[in-house]
Amino acid sequence: MSIRVYRNAVIRTGDDARPLASALAVEDGTLVAVGDEAEVRAAAGAGAELVDLDGAAVLPGLYDAHVHTASYARSLSEVDLRAARSLEEALAMVAAHAATLGEGEWLFGGRWNSNTWDVPVQPDRHALDRVCPDRPVALPSVDGHTTWANTEAMKRVGITRDSADPIGGEIVRDADGEPTGILREAAAYP
Known about the structure:
Layout: E1 3-7, E2 10-12, E3 20-21, E4 23-27, E5 30-35, H1 37-44, E6 49-52, E7 57-58, H2 69-75, E8 79-80, H3 87-98, E9 107-110, H4 125-131, E10 137-140, E11 146-149, H5 151-157, E12 169-173, E13 179-185
Parallel strand pairs: 1-6, 2-7, 8-9, 9-10
Antiparallel strand pairs: 1-4, 2-3, 4-5, 10-11, 11-13, 12-13
């Protein structure tokens, strides 16, 4: 258990009641005290290591090296299929969301996981075509490595039976060589 006191700083706390401080104490990666140096040193105890920040600014924050902020923002206006427990339930959610969109507008969203459906089945374009025959629909899976698309979406991006699989991707095809609407890896983002 080691406690460090960072002192001689301009700390913006984010707390309206006490917006500034000059010291903080951290114990095993957890912030345990913020205030002026005397009160923080008292809270940390006599054995605390002192670190002089020489007037540096310290701001509250969150460090996450792998965030998808733009994707999250887009997801707020998309259909979320994580709660679907069957293909039919997923299709009902897609149809309901489609009703909120303008004519011809793309329907995005997804996060579907057919492995959690009551009857796990691989969805295909024909299922989406039943609820959105004229609207392009593209629905990435929960892991982001597969997109489920309808016929109109594939038509608009130029995916046909003659399309080659992109390097690092696969256009899944049926026994007749027709795209099923399942696009994997690099094919999922044409």
